[in-house]
Design a protein that fits this description.
With 529 residues, the chain is of the alpha+beta class. It contains 19 helices and 15 strands. The strands form 4 sheets. Strands 1-2-3-5-4 form a 5-stranded mixed beta barrel. Strands 9-10-11-14-15 form a 5-stranded mixed β-sheet, with no helix packed on it. A hairpin with a 4-residue loop joins strand 4 and strand 5. The mean pLDDT is 90.
Length: 529
Protein backbone atom coordinates (compact mmCIF):
# COMPACT_ATOMS: atom_id res chain seq x y z
CA UNK A 1 0.00 0.00 0.00
CA UNK A 2 1.59 3.26 -1.11
CA UNK A 3 0.69 6.70 0.22
CA UNK A 4 2.28 10.13 0.57
CA UNK A 5 3.28 11.11 4.10
CA UNK A 6 2.98 14.54 5.70
CA UNK A 7 5.85 16.95 6.34
CA UNK A 8 5.56 16.22 10.09
CA UNK A 9 5.94 12.49 9.46
CA UNK A 10 8.94 13.01 7.18
CA UNK A 11 10.72 15.00 9.92
CA UNK A 12 9.86 12.35 12.50
CA UNK A 13 11.27 9.59 10.29
CA UNK A 14 14.50 11.55 9.87
CA UNK A 15 14.82 11.52 13.68
CA UNK A 16 14.23 7.78 13.82
CA UNK A 17 16.90 7.14 11.22
CA UNK A 18 19.59 8.85 13.28
CA UNK A 19 18.79 7.81 16.83
CA UNK A 20 21.61 5.22 17.16
CA UNK A 21 24.42 7.37 15.80
CA UNK A 22 25.08 10.58 13.91
CA UNK A 23 24.30 10.54 10.22
CA UNK A 24 22.40 12.09 7.36
CA UNK A 25 18.81 11.48 6.23
CA UNK A 26 17.84 11.95 2.59
CA UNK A 27 14.14 12.52 2.05
CA UNK A 28 12.95 12.08 -1.54
CA UNK A 29 9.54 12.63 -3.11
CA UNK A 30 7.96 13.78 -6.34
CA UNK A 31 9.07 17.35 -7.07
CA UNK A 32 5.49 18.40 -7.97
CA UNK A 33 3.88 16.81 -4.91
CA UNK A 34 3.49 19.31 -2.08
CA UNK A 35 3.41 17.47 1.24
CA UNK A 36 0.69 18.31 3.71
CA UNK A 37 1.90 19.93 6.92
CA UNK A 38 0.49 17.13 9.08
CA UNK A 39 -1.43 13.86 8.77
CA UNK A 40 -5.19 14.06 8.38
CA UNK A 41 -7.08 12.65 11.39
CA UNK A 42 -8.21 9.10 10.68
CA UNK A 43 -11.91 10.05 10.85
CA UNK A 44 -11.40 12.36 7.85
CA UNK A 45 -9.79 9.68 5.68
CA UNK A 46 -11.18 6.32 6.87
CA UNK A 47 -14.24 4.38 5.73
CA UNK A 48 -17.11 5.47 7.99
CA UNK A 49 -19.45 2.51 7.32
CA UNK A 50 -18.97 0.70 10.63
CA UNK A 51 -19.05 3.94 12.62
CA UNK A 52 -22.30 5.13 11.01
CA UNK A 53 -23.91 1.74 11.55
CA UNK A 54 -22.95 1.90 15.25
CA UNK A 55 -24.40 5.42 15.50
CA UNK A 56 -27.65 4.22 13.91
CA UNK A 57 -27.86 1.39 16.44
CA UNK A 58 -27.47 3.95 19.26
CA UNK A 59 -30.24 6.09 17.77
CA UNK A 60 -27.96 8.94 16.73
CA UNK A 61 -29.64 10.59 13.72
CA UNK A 62 -27.21 13.49 13.16
CA UNK A 63 -23.42 13.16 13.26
CA UNK A 64 -23.16 16.47 15.16
CA UNK A 65 -25.25 15.11 18.07
CA UNK A 66 -22.02 13.74 19.55
CA UNK A 67 -18.90 15.75 20.32
CA UNK A 68 -16.05 15.13 17.83
CA UNK A 69 -12.64 16.70 17.43
CA UNK A 70 -13.11 16.54 13.64
CA UNK A 71 -16.27 16.09 11.59
CA UNK A 72 -16.11 14.56 8.07
CA UNK A 73 -17.54 16.35 5.05
CA UNK A 74 -21.36 16.03 4.78
CA UNK A 75 -20.95 14.52 1.29
CA UNK A 76 -18.78 11.69 2.68
CA UNK A 77 -21.30 10.99 5.44
CA UNK A 78 -24.16 11.08 2.92
CA UNK A 79 -22.41 8.77 0.43
CA UNK A 80 -21.60 6.26 3.19
CA UNK A 81 -25.23 6.29 4.38
CA UNK A 82 -26.33 5.59 0.80
CA UNK A 83 -24.01 2.57 0.63
CA UNK A 84 -25.52 1.25 3.89
CA UNK A 85 -28.99 1.75 2.42
CA UNK A 86 -27.94 -0.18 -0.69
CA UNK A 87 -26.81 -2.97 1.66
CA UNK A 88 -30.27 -2.85 3.36
CA UNK A 89 -28.70 -2.04 6.74
CA UNK A 90 -30.35 1.39 6.96
CA UNK A 91 -33.91 2.19 5.92
CA UNK A 92 -35.13 5.28 4.05
CA UNK A 93 -35.01 7.30 7.29
CA UNK A 94 -31.42 6.10 7.94
CA UNK A 95 -32.60 4.03 10.92
CA UNK A 96 -30.88 0.68 11.44
CA UNK A 97 -32.78 -2.36 10.11
CA UNK A 98 -32.96 -5.83 11.66
CA UNK A 99 -30.59 -6.96 8.93
CA UNK A 100 -28.21 -4.17 10.00
CA UNK A 101 -28.32 -5.37 13.62
CA UNK A 102 -27.43 -8.91 12.53
CA UNK A 103 -24.58 -7.51 10.45
CA UNK A 104 -23.21 -5.60 13.44
CA UNK A 105 -23.26 -8.73 15.57
CA UNK A 106 -20.72 -10.32 13.20
CA UNK A 107 -18.23 -7.58 14.10
CA UNK A 108 -17.03 -7.17 10.51
CA UNK A 109 -17.04 -4.32 8.02
CA UNK A 110 -20.69 -3.87 6.92
CA UNK A 111 -19.79 -4.87 3.35
CA UNK A 112 -18.46 -8.25 4.50
CA UNK A 113 -21.29 -8.74 6.99
CA UNK A 114 -23.83 -8.19 4.23
CA UNK A 115 -22.01 -10.59 1.92
CA UNK A 116 -21.81 -13.34 4.56
CA UNK A 117 -25.46 -13.03 5.63
CA UNK A 118 -26.71 -13.05 2.01
CA UNK A 119 -24.40 -15.92 1.09
CA UNK A 120 -25.62 -17.97 4.05
CA UNK A 121 -29.18 -17.77 2.72
CA UNK A 122 -27.92 -19.19 -0.58
CA UNK A 123 -25.79 -21.97 0.92
CA UNK A 124 -22.36 -20.34 0.48
CA UNK A 125 -21.58 -19.31 4.05
CA UNK A 126 -18.03 -20.68 4.23
CA UNK A 127 -17.09 -19.34 0.80
CA UNK A 128 -18.16 -15.84 1.84
CA UNK A 129 -16.20 -16.11 5.12
CA UNK A 130 -13.14 -17.20 3.16
CA UNK A 131 -13.58 -14.32 0.71
CA UNK A 132 -13.93 -11.81 3.57
CA UNK A 133 -10.77 -13.17 5.20
CA UNK A 134 -8.87 -13.09 1.90
CA UNK A 135 -9.79 -9.45 1.30
CA UNK A 136 -9.15 -8.41 4.90
CA UNK A 137 -5.65 -9.89 5.19
CA UNK A 138 -2.42 -9.23 3.28
CA UNK A 139 -2.20 -10.64 -0.25
CA UNK A 140 -1.27 -14.35 -0.29
CA UNK A 141 0.71 -13.80 -3.51
CA UNK A 142 4.32 -12.69 -3.24
CA UNK A 143 5.02 -9.07 -4.26
CA UNK A 144 6.56 -10.18 -7.54
CA UNK A 145 3.22 -11.59 -8.73
CA UNK A 146 1.12 -8.86 -10.36
CA UNK A 147 -2.40 -10.01 -11.22
CA UNK A 148 -5.71 -8.55 -10.00
CA UNK A 149 -7.80 -11.74 -10.38
CA UNK A 150 -9.14 -12.77 -6.95
CA UNK A 151 -10.41 -16.13 -8.22
CA UNK A 152 -6.95 -17.69 -8.60
CA UNK A 153 -6.11 -16.71 -5.00
CA UNK A 154 -9.50 -17.94 -3.76
CA UNK A 155 -9.11 -21.31 -5.53
CA UNK A 156 -5.71 -21.93 -3.93
CA UNK A 157 -7.18 -21.19 -0.50
CA UNK A 158 -10.37 -23.24 -0.94
CA UNK A 159 -8.40 -26.25 -2.19
CA UNK A 160 -5.54 -25.63 0.31
CA UNK A 161 -3.06 -25.72 -2.55
CA UNK A 162 0.00 -23.75 -1.38
CA UNK A 163 2.74 -25.47 -3.38
CA UNK A 164 3.28 -22.73 -5.96
CA UNK A 165 6.40 -20.64 -5.39
CA UNK A 166 4.54 -17.32 -5.71
CA UNK A 167 2.22 -18.10 -2.74
CA UNK A 168 3.14 -16.78 0.70
CA UNK A 169 2.31 -19.91 2.73
CA UNK A 170 2.18 -18.25 6.14
CA UNK A 171 -0.25 -15.58 4.93
CA UNK A 172 -2.41 -18.21 3.24
CA UNK A 173 -2.71 -20.20 6.50
CA UNK A 174 -3.59 -16.98 8.38
CA UNK A 175 -6.40 -16.32 5.90
CA UNK A 176 -7.82 -19.83 6.44
CA UNK A 177 -7.58 -19.37 10.20
CA UNK A 178 -9.46 -16.05 9.96
CA UNK A 179 -12.12 -17.59 7.67
CA UNK A 180 -12.80 -20.30 10.26
CA UNK A 181 -13.12 -17.61 12.93
CA UNK A 182 -15.76 -15.75 10.86
CA UNK A 183 -17.54 -19.01 10.05
CA UNK A 184 -17.78 -20.08 13.72
CA UNK A 185 -19.00 -16.61 14.68
CA UNK A 186 -21.73 -16.82 12.04
CA UNK A 187 -22.90 -20.18 13.37
CA UNK A 188 -23.53 -18.57 16.78
CA UNK A 189 -26.09 -16.11 15.39
CA UNK A 190 -27.54 -17.89 12.32
CA UNK A 191 -28.38 -21.38 11.22
CA UNK A 192 -25.65 -22.43 8.77
CA UNK A 193 -25.80 -25.13 6.12
CA UNK A 194 -23.05 -27.70 5.74
CA UNK A 195 -19.85 -26.60 3.94
CA UNK A 196 -19.68 -27.26 0.19
CA UNK A 197 -16.95 -29.71 -0.77
CA UNK A 198 -16.80 -28.58 -4.39
CA UNK A 199 -16.01 -25.01 -5.38
CA UNK A 200 -18.57 -23.15 -7.50
CA UNK A 201 -16.17 -20.69 -9.15
CA UNK A 202 -18.90 -18.70 -10.89
CA UNK A 203 -20.61 -17.88 -7.59
CA UNK A 204 -17.54 -16.20 -6.08
CA UNK A 205 -18.15 -13.14 -8.29
CA UNK A 206 -21.74 -12.96 -7.06
CA UNK A 207 -20.56 -13.07 -3.44
CA UNK A 208 -18.13 -10.21 -4.10
CA UNK A 209 -20.84 -8.10 -5.71
CA UNK A 210 -22.96 -8.54 -2.56
CA UNK A 211 -20.15 -6.76 -0.70
CA UNK A 212 -19.36 -4.16 -3.37
CA UNK A 213 -22.54 -3.23 -5.28
CA UNK A 214 -21.13 0.28 -5.77
CA UNK A 215 -18.07 -1.15 -7.54
CA UNK A 216 -19.57 -3.07 -10.41
CA UNK A 217 -17.45 -2.01 -13.39
CA UNK A 218 -18.32 -2.02 -17.08
CA UNK A 219 -15.77 -1.82 -19.90
CA UNK A 220 -16.23 1.51 -21.68
CA UNK A 221 -14.84 0.44 -25.09
CA UNK A 222 -13.83 -3.03 -26.28
CA UNK A 223 -10.07 -3.73 -26.24
CA UNK A 224 -9.47 -0.79 -23.90
CA UNK A 225 -8.54 -0.74 -20.21
CA UNK A 226 -11.01 1.93 -19.02
CA UNK A 227 -14.05 1.05 -16.90
CA UNK A 228 -16.99 2.91 -15.44
CA UNK A 229 -18.13 1.98 -11.92
CA UNK A 230 -21.67 1.78 -10.54
CA UNK A 231 -20.81 4.63 -8.13
CA UNK A 232 -20.30 6.91 -11.14
CA UNK A 233 -16.49 6.99 -10.99
CA UNK A 234 -13.90 5.64 -13.40
CA UNK A 235 -11.22 2.96 -13.12
CA UNK A 236 -8.47 1.44 -15.26
CA UNK A 237 -6.80 -1.98 -15.31
CA UNK A 238 -3.29 -2.91 -16.41
CA UNK A 239 -3.22 -4.00 -20.05
CA UNK A 240 -1.26 -7.17 -19.23
CA UNK A 241 -3.67 -8.21 -16.45
CA UNK A 242 -5.48 -11.53 -16.94
CA UNK A 243 -8.83 -9.68 -16.50
CA UNK A 244 -8.04 -7.20 -19.29
CA UNK A 245 -10.95 -6.76 -21.74
CA UNK A 246 -13.54 -8.37 -19.41
CA UNK A 247 -16.95 -6.83 -20.09
CA UNK A 248 -17.91 -6.61 -16.41
CA UNK A 249 -15.82 -6.71 -13.24
CA UNK A 250 -16.52 -6.57 -9.51
CA UNK A 251 -13.73 -4.50 -7.94
CA UNK A 252 -12.77 -4.90 -4.29
CA UNK A 253 -9.55 -2.90 -4.18
CA UNK A 254 -8.65 0.34 -5.94
CA UNK A 255 -5.71 2.73 -5.78
CA UNK A 256 -7.59 6.00 -5.55
CA UNK A 257 -6.98 8.84 -7.97
CA UNK A 258 -9.02 11.91 -8.89
CA UNK A 259 -10.18 10.62 -12.28
CA UNK A 260 -9.43 6.96 -12.91
CA UNK A 261 -8.38 4.66 -10.07
CA UNK A 262 -6.22 1.59 -10.69
CA UNK A 263 -7.89 -1.79 -10.22
CA UNK A 264 -5.80 -3.95 -7.86
CA UNK A 265 -8.22 -6.79 -7.01
CA UNK A 266 -11.31 -7.85 -8.94
CA UNK A 267 -13.40 -10.67 -10.36
CA UNK A 268 -15.09 -10.92 -13.72
CA UNK A 269 -18.86 -11.39 -13.77
CA UNK A 270 -21.42 -11.88 -16.54
CA UNK A 271 -24.47 -9.79 -17.35
CA UNK A 272 -26.72 -12.83 -16.86
CA UNK A 273 -25.34 -13.34 -13.33
CA UNK A 274 -26.00 -9.69 -12.50
CA UNK A 275 -29.57 -9.82 -13.79
CA UNK A 276 -30.32 -13.12 -12.05
CA UNK A 277 -29.10 -12.25 -8.54
CA UNK A 278 -29.34 -8.44 -8.26
CA UNK A 279 -32.78 -7.47 -9.51
CA UNK A 280 -33.29 -5.11 -6.56
CA UNK A 281 -30.33 -3.03 -7.76
CA UNK A 282 -31.45 -2.90 -11.40
CA UNK A 283 -33.83 -0.28 -12.71
CA UNK A 284 -35.34 -0.16 -16.17
CA UNK A 285 -35.59 3.18 -17.88
CA UNK A 286 -37.47 3.92 -21.08
CA UNK A 287 -36.57 6.89 -23.22
CA UNK A 288 -37.10 8.37 -26.64
CA UNK A 289 -34.51 10.15 -28.72
CA UNK A 290 -35.34 12.65 -31.43
CA UNK A 291 -33.74 11.42 -34.65
CA UNK A 292 -33.26 14.73 -36.47
CA UNK A 293 -32.11 13.18 -39.75
CA UNK A 294 -35.17 10.96 -40.16
CA UNK A 295 -37.58 13.28 -38.28
CA UNK A 296 -38.79 10.47 -36.01
CA UNK A 297 -38.66 9.18 -32.44
CA UNK A 298 -36.28 6.34 -31.55
CA UNK A 299 -37.58 4.38 -28.53
CA UNK A 300 -34.95 2.77 -26.27
CA UNK A 301 -34.97 0.63 -23.14
CA UNK A 302 -32.05 1.08 -20.73
CA UNK A 303 -31.14 -0.94 -17.65
CA UNK A 304 -29.09 0.62 -14.86
CA UNK A 305 -27.28 -0.94 -11.92
CA UNK A 306 -27.18 2.00 -9.50
CA UNK A 307 -25.37 4.69 -11.57
CA UNK A 308 -24.05 2.28 -14.20
CA UNK A 309 -25.86 1.70 -17.48
CA UNK A 310 -25.76 -2.05 -18.12
CA UNK A 311 -27.10 -1.78 -21.66
CA UNK A 312 -29.39 0.14 -23.95
CA UNK A 313 -31.35 -1.37 -26.82
CA UNK A 314 -33.87 -0.04 -29.38
CA UNK A 315 -37.44 -1.32 -29.33
CA UNK A 316 -40.55 -0.53 -31.39
CA UNK A 317 -43.14 1.72 -29.76
CA UNK A 318 -46.09 -0.42 -28.69
CA UNK A 319 -49.68 0.81 -28.91
CA UNK A 320 -50.14 0.69 -25.14
CA UNK A 321 -46.88 2.51 -24.40
CA UNK A 322 -47.41 5.58 -22.20
CA UNK A 323 -45.53 8.18 -24.20
CA UNK A 324 -46.33 11.23 -22.10
CA UNK A 325 -43.53 10.98 -19.50
CA UNK A 326 -41.04 10.07 -22.23
CA UNK A 327 -42.08 13.06 -24.35
CA UNK A 328 -41.81 15.39 -21.37
CA UNK A 329 -38.30 14.10 -20.61
CA UNK A 330 -37.32 14.53 -24.25
CA UNK A 331 -38.56 18.14 -24.32
CA UNK A 332 -36.71 18.88 -21.07
CA UNK A 333 -33.56 17.53 -22.70
CA UNK A 334 -33.94 18.98 -26.20
CA UNK A 335 -35.62 22.24 -25.21
CA UNK A 336 -38.87 23.95 -26.21
CA UNK A 337 -37.71 24.32 -29.82
CA UNK A 338 -38.89 20.73 -30.32
CA UNK A 339 -42.42 22.17 -30.34
CA UNK A 340 -43.91 24.08 -33.26
CA UNK A 341 -43.86 27.75 -32.24
CA UNK A 342 -46.10 29.70 -34.59
CA UNK A 343 -45.74 33.47 -34.93
CA UNK A 344 -48.85 33.94 -32.77
CA UNK A 345 -47.55 31.58 -30.07
CA UNK A 346 -44.18 33.36 -29.92
CA UNK A 347 -45.91 36.73 -29.86
CA UNK A 348 -48.15 35.73 -26.94
CA UNK A 349 -45.22 34.28 -25.03
CA UNK A 350 -43.09 37.40 -25.57
CA UNK A 351 -45.92 39.74 -24.51
CA UNK A 352 -46.52 37.82 -21.26
CA UNK A 353 -42.78 37.74 -20.52
CA UNK A 354 -42.46 41.49 -21.18
CA UNK A 355 -45.39 42.33 -18.93
CA UNK A 356 -44.15 40.03 -16.13
CA UNK A 357 -40.74 41.71 -16.32
CA UNK A 358 -42.23 45.21 -16.11
CA UNK A 359 -44.58 44.14 -13.34
CA UNK A 360 -41.66 42.80 -11.30
CA UNK A 361 -39.18 45.65 -11.67
CA UNK A 362 -41.13 48.83 -12.36
CA UNK A 363 -44.87 48.94 -12.32
CA UNK A 364 -47.72 47.90 -10.08
CA UNK A 365 -50.05 46.39 -12.68
CA UNK A 366 -53.30 44.50 -12.52
CA UNK A 367 -51.68 41.59 -14.38
CA UNK A 368 -51.02 38.56 -12.17
CA UNK A 369 -49.46 35.80 -14.28
CA UNK A 370 -46.44 33.53 -14.17
CA UNK A 371 -43.81 34.19 -16.81
CA UNK A 372 -43.70 32.12 -20.01
CA UNK A 373 -39.90 32.12 -20.04
CA UNK A 374 -37.94 28.98 -20.96
CA UNK A 375 -37.18 27.92 -17.38
CA UNK A 376 -40.75 28.36 -16.14
CA UNK A 377 -42.32 26.50 -19.09
CA UNK A 378 -39.83 23.62 -18.94
CA UNK A 379 -40.25 23.23 -15.16
CA UNK A 380 -44.04 23.11 -15.48
CA UNK A 381 -44.44 20.96 -18.61
CA UNK A 382 -46.59 18.44 -16.74
CA UNK A 383 -49.17 21.13 -15.95
CA UNK A 384 -49.56 22.98 -19.27
CA UNK A 385 -48.44 20.50 -21.95
CA UNK A 386 -48.96 16.95 -20.63
CA UNK A 387 -52.80 17.02 -20.92
CA UNK A 388 -52.41 17.48 -24.71
CA UNK A 389 -49.97 14.55 -25.24
CA UNK A 390 -52.47 11.66 -25.03
CA UNK A 391 -52.26 10.53 -28.65
CA UNK A 392 -48.86 11.94 -29.58
CA UNK A 393 -46.63 9.14 -30.89
CA UNK A 394 -44.72 10.82 -33.74
CA UNK A 395 -42.77 14.03 -34.20
CA UNK A 396 -45.33 15.12 -36.81
CA UNK A 397 -48.14 14.79 -34.27
CA UNK A 398 -46.08 16.72 -31.70
CA UNK A 399 -45.47 19.54 -34.19
CA UNK A 400 -49.20 19.73 -34.98
CA UNK A 401 -50.03 20.92 -31.44
CA UNK A 402 -51.47 24.45 -31.37
CA UNK A 403 -49.11 25.98 -28.81
CA UNK A 404 -50.80 29.39 -29.10
CA UNK A 405 -54.18 28.01 -28.00
CA UNK A 406 -52.55 25.93 -25.24
CA UNK A 407 -50.75 28.96 -23.78
CA UNK A 408 -53.80 31.20 -24.18
CA UNK A 409 -55.79 28.63 -22.20
CA UNK A 410 -53.47 29.23 -19.24
CA UNK A 411 -54.51 32.89 -19.06
CA UNK A 412 -57.88 33.59 -17.37
CA UNK A 413 -60.39 35.62 -19.43
CA UNK A 414 -60.01 38.74 -17.31
CA UNK A 415 -56.22 38.59 -17.59
CA UNK A 416 -56.51 38.14 -21.35
CA UNK A 417 -58.40 41.44 -21.49
CA UNK A 418 -55.72 43.12 -19.36
CA UNK A 419 -53.02 41.69 -21.61
CA UNK A 420 -54.71 43.08 -24.72
CA UNK A 421 -55.06 46.52 -23.11
CA UNK A 422 -51.61 46.78 -21.54
CA UNK A 423 -49.52 45.18 -24.30
CA UNK A 424 -51.47 45.20 -27.57
CA UNK A 425 -50.26 43.10 -30.48
CA UNK A 426 -50.65 46.04 -32.91
CA UNK A 427 -50.87 49.80 -32.75
CA UNK A 428 -52.63 52.13 -35.19
CA UNK A 429 -50.31 54.80 -36.65
CA UNK A 430 -51.36 58.13 -38.26
CA UNK A 431 -51.55 56.57 -41.75
CA UNK A 432 -54.35 54.30 -40.50
CA UNK A 433 -52.19 51.15 -40.72
CA UNK A 434 -52.15 48.69 -37.83
CA UNK A 435 -48.47 47.96 -37.22
CA UNK A 436 -47.35 44.92 -35.24
CA UNK A 437 -45.30 45.55 -32.08
CA UNK A 438 -42.23 43.35 -31.74
CA UNK A 439 -41.79 42.02 -28.16
CA UNK A 440 -39.03 39.51 -28.98
CA UNK A 441 -36.63 41.57 -26.85
CA UNK A 442 -38.70 41.54 -23.67
CA UNK A 443 -36.86 44.55 -22.31
CA UNK A 444 -37.42 46.75 -25.39
CA UNK A 445 -40.72 46.59 -27.36
CA UNK A 446 -40.11 47.76 -30.92
CA UNK A 447 -42.40 49.50 -33.43
CA UNK A 448 -40.83 49.20 -36.90
CA UNK A 449 -42.77 51.49 -39.29
CA UNK A 450 -42.12 53.46 -42.49
CA UNK A 451 -41.32 57.06 -41.80
CA UNK A 452 -44.14 58.39 -44.08
CA UNK A 453 -46.75 56.62 -41.94
CA UNK A 454 -45.77 58.64 -38.86
CA UNK A 455 -46.13 62.20 -40.22
CA UNK A 456 -48.20 64.42 -37.98
CA UNK A 457 -47.49 62.40 -34.82
CA UNK A 458 -45.69 64.55 -32.25
CA UNK A 459 -45.24 62.11 -29.36
CA UNK A 460 -43.73 58.62 -29.26
CA UNK A 461 -46.42 55.90 -28.93
CA UNK A 462 -46.58 54.27 -25.49
CA UNK A 463 -48.03 51.07 -24.04
CA UNK A 464 -48.81 49.75 -20.52
CA UNK A 465 -51.30 52.54 -19.78
CA UNK A 466 -48.99 55.12 -21.35
CA UNK A 467 -46.06 54.29 -19.04
CA UNK A 468 -43.66 52.51 -21.43
CA UNK A 469 -42.53 54.23 -24.68
CA UNK A 470 -41.96 52.05 -27.73
CA UNK A 471 -38.58 52.04 -29.41
CA UNK A 472 -39.53 53.39 -32.83
CA UNK A 473 -37.57 52.11 -35.84
CA UNK A 474 -38.30 54.56 -38.66
CA UNK A 475 -37.89 52.78 -41.98
CA UNK A 476 -37.10 53.92 -45.51
CA UNK A 477 -39.52 53.04 -48.35
CA UNK A 478 -37.30 49.94 -48.82
CA UNK A 479 -38.02 48.99 -45.19
CA UNK A 480 -34.45 49.68 -44.03
CA UNK A 481 -33.94 51.46 -40.67
CA UNK A 482 -33.26 55.18 -41.03
CA UNK A 483 -33.45 56.17 -37.38
CA UNK A 484 -34.05 54.45 -34.01
CA UNK A 485 -35.60 56.72 -31.41
CA UNK A 486 -37.58 56.93 -28.19
CA UNK A 487 -38.30 60.63 -28.89
CA UNK A 488 -40.26 61.13 -32.11
CA UNK A 489 -40.65 64.89 -31.61
CA UNK A 490 -36.88 65.34 -31.28
CA UNK A 491 -36.35 63.39 -34.50
CA UNK A 492 -38.76 65.63 -36.47
CA UNK A 493 -37.08 68.74 -35.09
CA UNK A 494 -33.41 67.74 -35.35
CA UNK A 495 -32.79 64.89 -37.77
CA UNK A 496 -35.65 64.78 -40.26
CA UNK A 497 -34.32 67.48 -42.62
CA UNK A 498 -31.00 65.65 -43.05
CA UNK A 499 -32.85 62.40 -43.73
CA UNK A 500 -35.15 64.15 -46.21
CA UNK A 501 -32.21 65.71 -48.08
CA UNK A 502 -30.43 62.36 -48.31
CA UNK A 503 -33.36 60.14 -49.35
CA UNK A 504 -35.86 62.17 -51.38
CA UNK A 505 -33.64 61.97 -54.48
CA UNK A 506 -33.30 58.22 -54.08
CA UNK A 507 -37.01 57.62 -53.42
CA UNK A 508 -38.62 60.22 -55.73
CA UNK A 509 -41.95 58.38 -55.88
CA UNK A 510 -42.47 58.84 -52.14
CA UNK A 511 -43.69 61.79 -50.10
CA UNK A 512 -41.04 63.94 -48.40
CA UNK A 513 -42.80 67.11 -47.07
CA UNK A 514 -40.85 69.95 -45.53
CA UNK A 515 -42.96 70.11 -42.37
CA UNK A 516 -43.46 66.60 -40.87
CA UNK A 517 -45.64 67.95 -38.05
CA UNK A 518 -48.38 69.14 -40.43
CA UNK A 519 -47.93 66.63 -43.26
CA UNK A 520 -50.51 63.94 -43.96
CA UNK A 521 -49.31 60.48 -43.00
CA UNK A 522 -49.55 57.89 -45.79
CA UNK A 523 -48.67 54.35 -46.71
CA UNK A 524 -48.93 55.17 -50.45
CA UNK A 525 -46.67 56.69 -53.09
CA UNK A 526 -47.24 60.32 -54.19
CA UNK A 527 -49.07 59.17 -57.32
CA UNK A 528 -51.60 57.13 -55.31
CA UNK A 529 -52.14 59.68 -52.54
Amino acid sequence: ELSFISKDSSIQRAGRAGRLSAGKCYRLWHQNKILQESDKPEILRADLSSLLLDLALWGVREFEELKWLDIPEPSIIGNTQEVLKELFMLDESYDITQFGKEALSLGLHPRFSYMILKANDLGYAYESCLLAALLGEKDIYQNVFRNSDILTRFTHLFEKDFNDTYIHKHRAREVLKQADFFYNKLKKIKRVKKKNTKLNKEFVSILLLFAYPDRLAKLRVKNDNKYKLSNGKGAIIHQEDSLFNSDFLVVSNLSSHDKNSYINLALDITLSQIEEHFLSFIKEEQSIIYNKENKKFDFRVKKHFLKLELYSKPEPISNNQDMKPLLLDLIRKEGLDLLNWSENALGLRNRVNFLCLKNDIELNLSFNMKSFNEESLVNNLQFWLEPYLDNIRTIKALESLDIYSILLGLIPWEQQQNLGTLVPTHIEVPSGSRIKIDYSNIEVPILAVRLQEMFGLHETPKIVNGKVPLQVHLLSPASRPIQITYDLKSFWENSYQEVRKELRGKYKRHYWPENPFEAVATNKTKKRM
